[in-house]
Amino acid sequence: MRTTLIPNMIDLLKTNINKKNADRLMFEIGNIYAKNPSSDELPVQLEHIIIGKNNIDFYELKNIINYITNTLNIEELTYKKANEPFLHPGRSAYIYLNDTMLGFIGQIHPSVAVKYDIPFNICLAELSFDEIFNIVKDQKNIIAKQVGKYPAVLRDIAVVCNEDVEVGELKSTIKKYGGKNLISCNVFDVYRNITTLGVGKKSIAFNLKFRSDTETLTDDMIEKTMNEIITGLAHDNNALLR
Length: 242
Fold this sequence. Notes:
Blueprint: H1 6-18, E1 26-34, E2 44-54, H2 58-71, E3 78-81, E4 87-97, E5 100-108, H3 110-116, E6 122-128, H4 129-138, E7 153-162, H5 167-178, E8 182-191, H6 194-197, E9 201-210, H7 219-237, E10 240-241
């Protein structure tokens, strides 16, 4: 009885890589078995979904997960540093909705890649299909909104921060100071270089999208909000504009 969908996904990805069909996003929905939390009786059967891809980084796969959950009206996921032996320790996270852990996401640990003779840049995400289904089933107030008639405004921002500052912390700060017109905030680059950034530092770049339901946002309005975000990041996270 399998306790994770990972081995089968790795075999699937390896087969496609060997057949020169490497850059395909794969998924499987299947059953796993876990210890019964309430007794020593037979294990419980759980339904999980796993997504895997070769030649992808952590943040690309994270954006795919966010897109899927947002489509299901599941928003405000949080990501906390994971500690799984089969995942890269610096490129993995547990996925939470409030206090409920939905699963994990991360790059394969180098030792696992060597053992299975697969590329190092394979990323996987495994989530509880049961938990997701229960969340969607319990939703009572799904509201359709009119497509915005005012144009969106895009801005990029890159900040330098300490290595131990998590992306989720920076994202929360950006949302805090971004105001009601900030409709999305996504990471598109993480950069480390001791020569240019210093020891124990990293640069994280975000793509921000702003839109108002009532008016066209002017450059002055966006500039004011961006300055508030930059000041907030410096104050709350000691993250400075790169």
